[in-house]
Amino acid sequence: MVSSLSLHLLALAFYRIRWLLSTPPHPRPTWYPSAVSTSWRGLDDDLSSLLASLEMALEREVREEERAYSEAEERFRRASQPLIDLVQDLVGEEVEAVLGPYRLSGELTRVYRDFLLLHTDRGEVLLRLEAVAALRLRRPPEVRASEPRRGRSGTAAEESEGGTEEQAAPPEEPLSLDFAAALRHLSRGRRQVRIGLVNGTVLSGTPDAVGLDYLLLAEHPAGRPRREKEVTKRTALSLASLAWVELAEGRGGA
Question: For a Cys staple, 219 with which of 6, 151, 205, 236, CB 3.0–4.6 Å?
Answer without folding.
Answer: 205
